[in-house]
């Protein structure tokens, strides 16, 4: 008998997420709650989980418990989470000065920051005639189509299907035809007749329609012939450049309602703690302010206008190596008004504006001087022509609709250009090997030179011949940068910092990592160097699974590095090298990584600039080890390392560099070039790629338009589905309120959620207004005892009950200490104990992928079995001394367990910390001094040796194998040379261990080696140690 299929009941997704911009739909309240708590939780009012301090802190027993009471509430009443608010989404008022919360604060302190708006070009709203409006005037009402008009689509479902087929799954025309035929077998009226009908419908979208244009460029100079008497082909060829009007693109970006509240319509100066400047979004830099000063001084009629910088970027990319090195040269454009996080998020703030020509010739003429000059001239001529439509608006303001619904007078100006070093050389008309921003010679790039400017270059052109310009000043004298033809533009100033190619890929990957490999080969020879590199790979591969850390199962032996590869390797590379390279080399790498993480911050203060200078100075001082060891004998006149000397100035000009990084344009390559090329027939693919990009832009513009009119809120079938649910008596009172009309969702607020993120969420950027905290997981773990005494026995921590009671006493009696009374006075804990598999930590991490305020969140796990591989107990930092800078005041610990209980209607969350077996550097130094004292006395009185080596923190050495439990609860761990002390033979062995690269292992003993420190334990001693330590 054939197997019977049990058909599942279709459950429509009728519950929409009520947070702005989120399009997720759900079938029930449970799924919606999990999504909101995971993706949109507001940590601002949440609970902070702290490690135990004071008398209840029992380091000697090997763990901590931490807790902090919270307000009452249902079920998980110790968690509080705020919902969304319309106030978070409204744009700030337009005024000269305002004060807002300081996003550069850890833990949400009371410090606030002061924002000063430019007093002349302050972005005052105006009417259609350009006349300023009084303060507080509402935006002009825009004429819109009816809320049920989805033209050219019949209805919403037809639009969603078109977007799904063409953009989301990129379905081919043949597949669309096949699907419509299958659809027609069940419904005689499928949404589209075939793929042509779908394409025609998308092409008919009117919003976002910016047609492609084409112009051609050809060589007009003197012809030359080769040995065969033939004119090179490139001289007779016409090179086509395809582009769209940049003025219309910028108007669409500025008027995009999706950017409301995320644009600055005037230059600003941000001041944080102590009145110190902060550099964050692009308009907070000095360049935009200085440009506004120049514009306002030159023309008083521009007062009240908005200065809009034009950010451009270009980068040649290859789409397929196997089919003949198909190269394309896209040019992108963005505006400087949007915040950096918007530009990085690719939310239509970066648009493809052109495909530049890529002239090619045969090998005979590839290095020809005329061809090289023509190739450069073609590039600058193309850029000059493309940006011509913007030139009138650079001196005369144009009334433009903005994202907040107001009209403003916009005055444009060429802004930063995003490019890697070869592109920067081409843009600035500078000789390869020279710096495009300063006059430093190629052999003197270890220091900075005087600033390059158009004015200085013109003086050089008037004074010297082409050869002198090339050899002595690095100027290509027969070329003119395209910026010369535009007002207030100087390409040498406009070249933006490029973290990806200058810092991450350039200095770190191409220089430092490569130099380490060369050093190992020079010092140890090929065979030994290969063994050491294998050990480094093993260390990298041994990194445990943890949020924010990428695992390299095969080490760093991948062939093609990406920027993400380099950033991930940077986090684990330094400890992997320890013991294999000199300490000065490690210090050079450490200083450079400090520099890298500092310049990657979203908010850079004046204090951060000082720290950047310190890190850069140390890196330059320590990198000399690569020259002294014979690796980099030619010195450090390297263009990409030289570029980091300009970062302080560039940050002050353009604010945080991560808003102008070439990673933005490289990521755009995927959607604008690579995917459209893969969808093409490969024959004359560029024309098909233009059509694909035009259709994608139209679909995107249509979605923004429909959303602005409130036509895409909730699922397509929300009204019928909701009616059906209510008709059968389903209770929707606990879910989000569903309005009668879809447009009602525009004002819906997200409800307060008390649930923490779903268990498969490892973290990510946190929203603005977050405070540093830790919150437990939503769901308790199963299989653990529910009573405290039973739990202590289950996890083999007999002191757990007493420690928890002591801690609770200290919490309830802040003026007293539990150490002054007996345990009989501690409160009894009789409530149910809940154990949790994880917790979410939210903290300030501006160098990582973070929210607007630099806040980041990660999940900390403590589970007995993780992905069927074994237990997982994540490491955390314990704030031992907040007065010490950086990591010096932190201890590294591992989490054994998360749990919570109720006492007097208050929920107390705890975590148990494993024994501190990670030593701080100063502890190692102190312990090394003790070893040296032992060696010094080794020939005097061996009987004294056992008392000389003091135990590590929380431990004590075994004397002659003695097994003793101290009164304070700590156990002896290991002895020196099996408790036999140090004699002359042992002294020789110890010195040999420190002199050799690999340690000596004695028979019957196991050896633990730390930097400059060796502790040997017998098998019995190791067993004793393992019995009383939680690893």
From TrEMBL:
Residues 17-40 form the C2H2-type domain. It comes from the Eukaryota. Pfam families: Plavaka. InterPro entries: Plavaka, Znf_C2H2_type. This is C2H2-type domain-containing protein. It comes from Hermanssonia centrifuga.
């Amino acid at each position: 008998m054939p197997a019977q299929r049990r058909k599942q009941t279709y459950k429509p997704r009728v519950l929409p997420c009520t947070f702005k911009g989120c399009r997720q739909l759900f079938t029930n309240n449970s799924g919606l709650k999990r999504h909101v708590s995971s993706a949109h939780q507001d940590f601002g009012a949440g609970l902070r989980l702290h490690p135990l301090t004071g008398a209840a802190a029992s380091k000697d027993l090997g763990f901590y418990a931490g807790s902090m009471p919270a307000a009452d509430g249902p079920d998980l009443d110790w968690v509080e989470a705020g919902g969304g608010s319309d106030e978070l989404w409204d744009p700030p008022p337009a005024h000269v000065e305002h004060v807002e919360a300081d996003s550069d604060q850890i833990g949400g302190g009371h410090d606030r920051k002061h924002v000063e708006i430019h007093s002349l070009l302050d972005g005052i709203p105006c009417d259609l005639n350009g006349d300023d409006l009084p303060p507080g005037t509402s935006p002009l009402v825009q004429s819109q189509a009816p809320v049920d008009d989805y033209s050219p689509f019949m209805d919403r479902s037809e639009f969603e299907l078109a977007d799904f087929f063409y953009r989301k799954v990129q379905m081919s025309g043949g597949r669309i035809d096949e699907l419509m035929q299958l659809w027609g077998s069940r419904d005689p009226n499928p949404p589209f007749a075939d793929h042509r009908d779908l394409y025609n419908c998308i092409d008919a979208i009117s919003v976002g329609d910016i047609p492609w244009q084409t112009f051609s460029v050809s060589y007009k100079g003197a012809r030359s012939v080769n040995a065969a008497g033939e004119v090179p082909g490139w001289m007779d060829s016409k090179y086509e450049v395809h582009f769209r009007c940049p003025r219309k693109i910028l108007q669409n970006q500025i008027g995009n309602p999706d950017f409301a509240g995320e644009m600055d319509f005037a230059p600003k100066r941000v001041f944080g703690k102590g009145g110190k400047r902060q550099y964050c979004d692009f308009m907070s830099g000095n360049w935009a302010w200085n440009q506004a000063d120049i514009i306002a001084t030159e023309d008083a009629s521009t007062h009240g206008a908005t200065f809009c910088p034009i950010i451009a970027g270009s980068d040649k990319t290859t789409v397929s190596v196997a089919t003949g090195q198909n190269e394309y040269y896209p040019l992108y454009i963005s505006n400087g008004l949007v915040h950096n996080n918007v530009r990085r998020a690719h939310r239509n703030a970066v648009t493809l504006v052109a495909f530049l020509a890529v002239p090619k010739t045969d090998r005979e003429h590839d290095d020809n001087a005329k061809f090289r000059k023509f190739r450069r001239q073609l590039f600058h001529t193309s850029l000059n022509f493309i940006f011509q439509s913007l030139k009138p608006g650079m001196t005369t303001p144009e009334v433009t609709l903005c994202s907040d619904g107001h009209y403003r007078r916009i005055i444009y100006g060429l802004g930063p250009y995003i490019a890697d070093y070869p592109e920067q050389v081409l843009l600035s008309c500078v000789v390869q090997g020279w710096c495009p921003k300063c006059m430093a010679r190629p052999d003197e790039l270890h220091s900075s030179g005087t600033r390059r400017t158009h004015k200085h270059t013109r003086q050089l052109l008037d004074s010297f011949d082409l050869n002198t310009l090339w050899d002595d000043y690095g100027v290509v004298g027969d070329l003119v940068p395209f910026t010369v033809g535009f007002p207030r533009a100087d390409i040498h100033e406009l070249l933006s910092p490029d973290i990806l190619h200058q810092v991450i890929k350039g200095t770190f990957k191409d220089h430092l990592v490569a130099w380490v490999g060369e050093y190992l080969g020079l010092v140890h020879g090929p065979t030994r160097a290969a063994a050491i590199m294998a050990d480094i790979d093993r260390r990298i591969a041994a990194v445990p699974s943890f949020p924010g850390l990428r695992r390299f199962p095969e080490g760093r032996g991948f062939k093609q590095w990406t920027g993400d590869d380099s950033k991930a390797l940077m986090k684990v590379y330094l400890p992997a090298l320890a013991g294999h390279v000199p300490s000065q080399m490690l210090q050079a790498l450490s200083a450079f990584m400090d520099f890298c993480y500092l310049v990657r911050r979203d908010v850079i203060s004046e204090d951060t600039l000082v720290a950047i200078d310190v890190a850069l100075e140390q890196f330059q001082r320590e990198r000399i080890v690569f020259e002294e060891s014979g690796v980099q004998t030619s010195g450090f006149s390297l263009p990409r390392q030289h570029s980091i000397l300009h970062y302080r100035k560039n940050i002050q000009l353009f604010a945080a560099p991560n808003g102008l990084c070439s990673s933005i344009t490289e990521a755009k390559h995927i959607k604008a070039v690579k995917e459209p090329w893969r969808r093409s027939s490969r024959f004359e693919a560029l024309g098909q790629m233009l059509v694909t990009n035009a259709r994608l832009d139209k679909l995107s513009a249509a979605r923004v338009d429909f959303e602005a009119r409130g036509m895409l809120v909730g699922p397509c079938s929300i009204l019928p589905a909701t009616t059906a649910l209510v008709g059968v008596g389903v209770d929707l009172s606990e879910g989000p309120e569903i309005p009668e009309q879809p447009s009602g969702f525009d004002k819906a607020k997200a409800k307060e959620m008390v649930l923490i993120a779903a268990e498969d969420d490892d973290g990510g950027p946190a929203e603005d207004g977050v405070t540093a905290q830790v919150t437990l997981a939503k769901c308790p773990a199963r299989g653990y005892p529910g009573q405290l005494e039973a739990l202590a026995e289950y996890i083999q921590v007999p002191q757990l009950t007493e420690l928890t009671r002591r801690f609770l006493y200290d919490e309830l009696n802040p003026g007293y200490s539990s150490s002054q009374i007996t345990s009989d006075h501690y409160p009894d804990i009789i409530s149910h104990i809940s154990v949790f598999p994880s917790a979410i930590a939210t903290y300030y991490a501006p160098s990582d992928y973070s929210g607007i305020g630099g806040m980041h969140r990660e999940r900390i796990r403590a589970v007995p079995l993780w992905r069927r591989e074994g237990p997982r107990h994540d490491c955390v930092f314990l704030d031992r001394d907040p007065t010490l800078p950086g990591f010096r005041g932190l201890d590294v610990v591992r989490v054994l367990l998360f749990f919570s209980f109720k006492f007097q209607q208050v929920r107390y969350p705890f975590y148990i910390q494993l024994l501190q077996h990670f030593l701080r550097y100063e502890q190692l130094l102190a312990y090394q001094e003790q070893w040296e004292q032992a060696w010094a006395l080794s020939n005097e009185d061996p009987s004294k040796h056992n008392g000389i080596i003091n135990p590590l923190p929380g431990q004590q050495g075994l004397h002659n194998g003695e097994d003793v439990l101290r009164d304070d609860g700590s156990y002896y761990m290991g002895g020196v040379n099996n408790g036999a002390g140090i004699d002359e033979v042992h002294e020789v062995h110890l010195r040999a261990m420190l002199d050799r690269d690999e340690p000596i292992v004695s028979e019957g003993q196991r050896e633990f080696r730390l930097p400059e420190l060796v502790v040997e334990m017998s098998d019995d001693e190791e067993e004793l140690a393992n019995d009383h330590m939680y690893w």
